[in-house]
Amino acid sequence: MNNQNDVNDYISNFGTCEVINGTLSIRGDTAIDISGITAIKRIEGSLIIDSKMTSIANFSNLEFVGGDFEIDHNDVLETIEGINKLHTVNGNFLITRNYTSLKTITGFNSLEKIGGDFQITENHFLEMIAAFDNLITVGGRFLIRSADKLQRLNGFNALTKIGTGYKASSIKGTLSIVDNHTLIEINGFNSLIEIGLEMEVTNNRSLLRVKGFTNLEKVRSLTFMTNSLLVEIPLFNNLTTIDGALSINDSALVDINGFNTVQSLGWYLNFSQNSELVKITGFANLNKING
After folding, report:
1. Which residues sit opposite 129 in a β-bridge?
2. Does the global pTM surpass 0.70?
3. First to last CA, the chain
C-alpha cells in the first residue's frame, strides 16, 4: 500500500481479514490514515511501515509476525503504543530512523520472542522506552543507538538470552547500547544469563551508572568504552566466563570490582584512560588469561 487510496481499497475488500499470508507493507511520502485496519491478528510475512502516520495503535489485535516488524522513516509519529497482544516476531524487530518525531515507545506487553535483531536506532527525539516487560529471547543483535533524548533505560528484566543462536564470529550476538548522548542510567536486564558475542556500552557521554545484569553468567567480550562520566558498573556477581576480552576505558570509575566469580579470560584485560581509577579489587578467582 503506497497511498490512502490503496489503504481504503484494502479496508473495503479485506477489512475483516484476520490473517495475512504474505507481507503487509505500508509505504509513502504523504500522510496515510490506517486507523481502519483493525482486524489483523496474524501476518505470516513481514509488517513494514515506512510512511507518515500519527498512530499505529490500530494493530491492537496483532499477535504474530512471521517475518520482520519494522517502523521506519516516519517523521510525524510521536508515540508507539497499543500493540499489546503481539507475542512473537520471528524476524527482526526494528524501530529505526524516525528522526524528528518519535518520543515514546510503550506497550508490547505480550512480546516474548524475537527471532532476529532487536534494534531501536536513530530516533533522535526518543525520550522513553516503557515496554518489553515480558521479552524473553532475542535471537540476533540487541541494539539501542542514537536515542538522543533518552535519559534512563530501565526494564528488560525478563530477557534471558541474546544472540545465542548465532556463531561466535557473528556481530548478531551483541548487546550494544551506544551513542545515546543524554543517557544517565541503565538499570535492568536482571534475568539475562547469556550473550552470544559481546556486551558493549560505548560512547554514552552523559552516562553515570550502569546497574542490573545480576544473573549474567557468560559473554564472549565485555566492553565499557568512552563513557567519560561513568562512575558505576554492575557487580556481575554471577559472571564466570569471559571468552574474549574485558575492556573498561575512558571512564570516571574509582574502583573496578565485582568480577570475583570470573575464573578465566580468553584474551586480555584493558583498563586504560580511566583518569580517576585508584584500585582494582574484583578478580579474586581469576586464574587464567589465555591471550
Report:
1. 105
2. yes
3. 54
